[in-house]
Design a protein that fits this description.
Blueprint: H1 9-17, E1 26-28, E2 34-40, E3 46-54, E4 61-69, E5 77-83, E6 91-94, E7 99-104, E8 110-114, E9 117-121, E10 129-133, E11 147-152, E12 158-162, E13 166-170, E14 178-179, E15 193-200, E16 206-212, H2 228-233, E17 238-246, E18 254-261, E19 263-270, E20 273-279, E21 288-294, E22 300-304, E23 310-316, E24 322-328, E25 340-347, E26 353-355, E27 357-358, E28 363-364, E29 367-371, E30 377-381, E31 385-389
Parallel strand pairs: 1-26, 2-27
Antiparallel strand pairs: 2-31, 3-4, 4-5, 5-6, 7-8, 8-9, 9-10, 11-12, 12-13, 13-14, 15-16, 16-17, 17-18, 19-20, 20-21, 21-22, 23-24, 24-25, 25-26, 25-28, 29-30, 30-31
């Protein structure tokens, strides 16, 4: 563990994932709140593959992705849909580049990370202005940029995370960036190290989380779903998780590492609470596991895992209430790119989870959650659907 002045809760979480933990009970019941379809992209020739969703207020929302030609005759078309009335009506807006992620500071001001640049909007996603080119790898300047996500604490001060062990800071709204030196301290090969998740609370606590995963050896380039027998036999190999933590809005970062099974697929922080979603290989006993952690005391525990629920995202609010977005796998491989039924679970204590009623039409490979402490919450699927909790 590198240079720790305080005990980081997530480092404890990483170590805990390697230990067996009792699974959370799922109470299948019909509770009064329901997830209803608000938007469905329905076209005979193209699919809308949503990659990110934000709702910075109860009325303003943006989902970004690409329109994919089902016949493969045309290149994917970067696109978004925006709403200004809480999802009652949606407008499709073209995007300038293939999107990776979104971050909104308030209902008007947001940043879009794309393959080749970082963009800014002051109009809730209805138009975008290029503010900087993507940060390129030093060795292969022709490759796509390294930044995967950004997060801002105010209109000027923000951070970016991504490939090749990269963490950057900006003090001018994203126009220029400088490396965060603490990110390079963990011992791992940058070629196979990615910082993939970043989150802050309102009081300036923040986490940046990534992992080192060595290249798969043996020359097996086929995706797992094309060779399910091999995938089910492949052992879950321990990897290295990397964490940066701040308690002063990024003025100082402290790094830590820990061995881990799986990879972090989702991170949500609010108040003194946090949820982390871990994804596992198809040969593992369950496809995913959710950990709850305390940002003040450093305690963490496994709170949900199920063989027939692959969790893809989590959302927690400052009152300690949580939501999990999951997919019920449709075959023996949980990771297969075949849409399954969308399942969403809720908890009032981040320990016990109840399944909610979801529109029967909702299917996905991956589900994203978005919302705020005002009680309004939405979910988007990579199959072009957006649902609202009512």
């Amino acid at each position: 563990m590198a240079g720790m002045l305080f005990r980081p809760p997530f480092a404890i979480l990483f170590a805990a994932v390697l230990m067996a933990a009792s699974g959370a009970r799922v109470h299948a019941q019909n509770v009064s709140p329901q997830w209803r379809m608000q938007y469905f992209y329905d076209d005979l020739t193209t699919d809308f593959r949503i990659v990110d969703l934000v709702f910075p207020s109860s009325t303003r929302g943006v989902a970004v992705g690409e329109l994919i030609d089902r016949r493969g005759r045309r290149k994917p078309k970067p696109s978004s849909v925006v709403t200004s009335d809480g999802g009652a009506h949606w407008t499709m807006v073209p995007l300038p580049d293939a999107p990776r992620s979104l971050f909104f500071l308030d209902e008007a001001n947001g940043w879009l990370v794309t393959r080749d640049a970082i963009w800014f909007t002051a109009e809730a996603g209805r138009s975008w202005t290029r503010i900087s080119g993507q940060i390129k790898p030093r060795k292969r300047l022709g490759e796509q940029g390294v930044v995967l996500r950004v997060a801002f604490l105010d209109p000027k001060h923000g951070f970016a995370v991504g490939l090749r062990k990269s963490v950057y800071e900006t003090m001018d709204g994203g126009r220029t960036w400088k490396p965060v030196e603490e990110a390079s301290k963990p011992s791992s090969n940058p070629e196979f190290t990615t910082y993939s998740q970043i989150a802050f609370t309102r009081d300036g606590r923040g986490m940046i989380v990534g992992g080192y995963s060595p290249e798969r050896k043996g020359g097996d380039e086929e995706p797992d779903w094309m060779n399910p027998e091999n995938a089910m036999r492949r052992r879950q190999v321990p990897t290295l998780m990397l964490e940066l933590e701040t308690r002063d809005a990024g003025a100082q970062w402290k790094s830590a590492t820990a061995p881990l099974l799986g990879s972090l697929a989702g991170l949500s922080l609010a108040g003194t609470h946090g949820l982390g979603v871990f994804a596992y290989a198809d040969s593992f006993a369950w496809p995913s596991e959710v950990y709850r952690f305390d940002l003040t005391g450093g305690k963490s525990q496994s709170v949900f895992k199920a063989k027939d629920r692959r969790v893809t995202d989590a959302l927690v609010n400052s009152q300690g209430h949580g939501l999990l977005a999951a997919v019920e796998p449709s075959g023996i491989l949980a990771s297969a790119p075949v849409p399954g039924k969308v399942r969403i679970l809720r908890s009032d204590d981040l320990l016990h989870w109840d399944e909610m009623k979801v529109d029967y039409r909702a299917v996905a490979v991956s589900v994203m959650l978005a919302g705020a402490d005002n009680g309004r919450v939405w979910a988007a699927t990579d199959t072009g659907m957006i649902l609202r909790l009512e």
